[in-house]
């Protein structure tokens, strides 16, 4: 029993057979790829003259005065960090008063380290405090304040001990 093919199906099938036959012919008997001749080989002397011209052009092109000024300004040390907020900048560089210390010595407050306890994390029973932007656990020495060790960590405060002077200080959280 042969299935009867509609006229539309016969046309599509015929076009498909023609395309397959053309593809097979082109694949088997098609043109061979063209061989490309390389004509861009230059003599060593030509490369030498080009190199001489480029180096001469680089020597002749001196930077403009504006460019020299921009480069010199970029290399200088910045007086004020443009990425720092103004309020934070003022707080950081405000004038500090001298504070009396035990033993009759007076130590300027700027010599004493300041601490900012900004975060608390309890991960799997391990408590982590974020002090001055760095992570510490109990018993760690503070990197930016030599002599200070983390004694206790609570969600609301952290207790630091100055091992040199045997004094403890509580630093409340400052979010």
Main sheet attributes: strand count, strand direction, barrel closure: 3 strands, antiparallel
Question: How many distinct beta strands?
Answer: 8
The helix/strand class is: alpha+beta
Share of helical residues: 25-40%
Overall morphology:
flat
Overview of the molecule:
- This protein has helices at residues 7-29, 44-60, 65-75, 86-92, and strands at residues 98-100, 106-108, 117-123, 126-131, 134-136, 148-153, 157-162, 167-172.
- Residues 95-102 have low confidence and may be disordered.
- 33% of the residues lie in helices and 23% in strands.
- It has four helices and eight strands; from the N terminus they run H-H-H-H-E-E-E-E-E-E-E-E.
- The strands form three sheets. Strands 3-4-5 form a three-stranded antiparallel β-sheet, with no helix packed on it.
- Strand 6 and strand 7 (157-162) form a beta hairpin.
Topology summary:
Layout: H1 7-29, H2 44-60, H3 65-75, H4 86-92, E1 98-100, E2 106-108, E3 117-123, E4 126-131, E5 134-136, E6 148-153, E7 157-162, E8 167-172
Antiparallel strand pairs: 1-2, 3-4, 4-5, 6-7, 7-8
How would you concisely characterize the structure shown here?
The protein is of the alpha+beta class and 175 residues long.
Keywords:
alpha+beta; 175 residues; three-stranded antiparallel β-sheet; single chain; flat; 33% helix
């Amino acid at each position: 029993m042969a299935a009867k093919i509609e006229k539309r199906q016969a046309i599509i099938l015929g076009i498909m057979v023609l395309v397959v036959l053309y593809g097979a012919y082109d694949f088997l008997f098609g043109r061979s790829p063209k061989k490309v001749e390389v004509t861009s080989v230059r003599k060593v002397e030509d490369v030498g003259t080009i190199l001489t011209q480029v180096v001469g052009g680089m020597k002749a092109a001196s930077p403009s005065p504006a460019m020299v000024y921009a480069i010199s300004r970029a290399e200088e040390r910045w007086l004020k960090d443009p990425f720092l907020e103004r309020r934070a900048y003022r707080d950081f560089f405000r004038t500090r008063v001298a504070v009396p210390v035990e033993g009759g010595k007076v130590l300027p407050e700027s010599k004493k380290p300041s601490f900012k306890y900004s975060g608390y994390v309890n991960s799997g029973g391990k408590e982590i405090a974020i002090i001055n932007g760095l992570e510490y656990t109990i018993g760690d020495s503070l990197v930016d304040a030599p002599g200070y060790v983390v004694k206790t960590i609570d969600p609301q405060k952290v207790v630091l001990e100055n091992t040199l002077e045997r004094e403890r200080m509580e630093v409340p959280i400052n979010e």
